[in-house]
Design a protein that fits this description.
globular; 5 helices
């Protein structure tokens, strides 16, 4: 099933934060706060008006605390908005294909 594949091969949840350029977003402070609540999170993108994180699969229990912190400290952190999505099935297939390519290349060497 797709849920099984996402759990087994998915990279986790994707969280995107939109920066408030009027207040100057403090990317370091935002990342520190995210890591305090959801250890194992990774900043995977910092381009233009967005910060993108990957949150571990097993981190959903911390989402309420994380969302509350982000919402209550938006002005201080320089965040306009944020959203979270689950790994897409397409990303699972790309990851499996990438992993298979790595294994195949190692066998050839």
């Amino acid at each position: 099933s797709s849920l099984y594949l996402k759990k087994k091969f998915g990279v986790g949840y994707h969280m995107v934060l939109v920066k408030d350029h009027e207040r100057e977003c403090d990317e370091t402070a935002v990342t520190q706060r995210v890591l305090e609540i959801v250890p194992g999170s990774r900043l995977v993108g910092n381009a233009g008006a967005e910060l993108a994180y990957v949150l571990p699969n097993d981190s959903s229990a911390q989402f309420a605390e994380l969302f509350s912190l982000l919402e209550n400290n938006r002005q201080e952190l320089g965040i306009l908005s944020f959203g979270v999505s689950v790994t897409k099935l397409e990303e699972v297939f790309l990851k499996v294909g990438e992993d298979e390519g790595i294994v195949s290349n190692k066998k050839l060497q």
